[in-house]
Amino acid sequence: MIKEEVKKKLEGKIKEWFEKNPRRIYITIDKKDLKEVAKILHKDLGMRLSTVTGIDNEKNFELIYHFGKDQTGELFNLRVFIEDKANPEIDSLVSLFNSTEWIEREIKEMLGVNFKGHPDLRHLLLDKDWPEEEYPLRKDYPLKKGYPQDE
Amino acid sequence: MSKERKIIPIGPYHPLQEEPEFFRLIVEGEKVIDVDIEIGYNHRGIEKLSETKHWDQVTFLVERICGICSTSHPLAYVLAVEDLLGIKPPPRASFIRMIIAELERIHSHLLWLGLAGHFIGYNTVWMWAWKAREPVLDLFELITGNRNHYAMMKIGGVRRDIKEEDYSVIKKTIKELYPQLDLFKKAVRDDPVIHKRTKGVGVLTKQEAISYGVAGPTARASGLKIDVRRDEPYCLYEEIDWQVITTEKGDVYDKILVRVLEMYESCRIIEQCVDRLKPGPIEVEVREIPPGEGIGRAEAPRGEVFHYIRSDGTNQPVRHKVRAPSYMNVASNKFAVKGYSISDAAITLAAVDPCYCCTERAVAYNKNREKIFTGQDLIKLSQEKTKKLEAELK
């Protein structure tokens, strides 16, 4: 039911539709459509944004926006790839959800993805003295590097 | 009092509780105008660390994320790996998982109830709640060997069985808990002072609750009927008769009530699970984790715990994303404390059940950086307000 509705509303924007099982649907979309698609899922279809996972695939960045339809239990996972490794950037969703304010700040400091339109991209979890251009969740960041002041 | 703006920093660290946070309350006179929240004092890089551990080691690693709801993270993690593998644990393992998860909910809610009582000056409630919590922890020790960090979860099942002779002990403990819960329910429902202190205070409206994406009792108190146990029944919650508790107003009173009533449901779930424990295997063997991705969600005492894992076929996850419910709930304080008095801040900030570390260490300065209140004063302020109300009502 809800799957048909999602397919219909997102017509033309779905690059790949993958159902791992009835409750786990992965939808790949283009990054320029993100804001519009998120709006449709949240405002029109009443879904809740659980969180966003940011992944460094080495050749590109991948963000997965996990939307849950609580009444029926499905998770719709919007997959967005950011190909530009040198200047990764994507639209911020702060205007849609207050919750993304922290989520995006965390991804910015951990992966170095910039969110266009975010009002305040200070560090959330890392120290404010943490050096710029050092992103701990990137694959090329060594595990045992330690905090800057330890060096 | 003049309309001079002051900043009250609350936090950042208290060694007794789990999540250090830092709240900067901006106040005008007695009224809270704005709040800035800083977290990260306890950031341990678990997501990065997890990428260097073997799949089985990660279960123990995530158990250390939280000391109070220490089973919810491993549960969500093993559910995520099982989602990747496409397997389900045997029924006996699922029922054992549920018993552990619900016992944990009871002890966590009792802990919160006690501290909430302490903040508004009801130290008797504090002592009673923690006294009632003690048998639950003893029960944990009996069936898992530990009062906390039970290490029961395992990919494909559970690590330890519950002995048949312990069934009756579990049922007896739960049976003895009911009269205690009645006592708390009565205290919350009938006490006029508690009503005055908590009703209409720290309201989180339904609309804001949706926008902040809050979870668990914080969401249910604002009228959002969400509970992972019902929405996406993991383990075998769909076979059990229980209810999702919701209230409408979203104030501190509703948050207390939701938690008290939820404990009854947890008791009912445990009783039914014990009745359904049939002899049988407690795990399915998992030899290797193929490439792929999986998501696990579990309802912790504070709300939805979310784990995402990705495998490339090696013996370690490529990416492991963890999101705890407080991450969403704490941010909602930005809305909930605004416009109320400072003496209500202690209980409002505590009402989402983050951790109390902060409130204990609050220090207030005026603009000349002279100390006005300390953290203890803030609690005292809250307790004095209760005493004043008590005297008025006599």
Keywords:
heterodimer; A: 151 residues; alpha/beta; Beta Polymerase, domain 2; five-stranded mixed beta sheet; two-stranded parallel sheet; 3 helices; 21% helix; 31% strand; elongated; B: 394 residues; alpha+beta; Enolase-like, domain 1; Cytochrome-c3 Hydrogenase, chain B; 2 domains; three-stranded antiparallel beta sheet; 50% helix
Summarize it.
The complex is a heterodimer of chains A (151) and B (394). Chain A has helices at 2-9, 34-44, 100-111; strands at residues 14-21, 24-29, 48-56, 61-69, 74-82, 89-91, 114-116.
Q: Can you put this structure into words, describing what you see?
A:
- The complex is a heterodimer of chains A (151) and B (394).
- By secondary structure, chain A is α/β, with parallel strands linked by helices.
- Chain A has three helices and seven strands.
- Chain B has two domains: 102 residues, Enolase-like, domain 1; 282 residues, Orthogonal Bundle (Cytochrome-c3 Hydrogenase, chain B), CATH 1.10.645.10.
- Helix content of chain B is 50%, strand content 14%.
- Chain B has a three-stranded antiparallel beta sheet with strand order 1-2-3. In chain B, strands 6-7-8 form a three-stranded antiparallel beta sheet. A two-stranded antiparallel sheet of chain B has the order 4-5.
- In chain B, a hairpin with a 2-residue loop joins strand 2 and strand 3.
- Chain B is globular.
- Chains A and B meet through strand 3, strand 4 and helix 3 of A and helix 1, helix 8, strand 6, strand 7 and strand 8 of B.
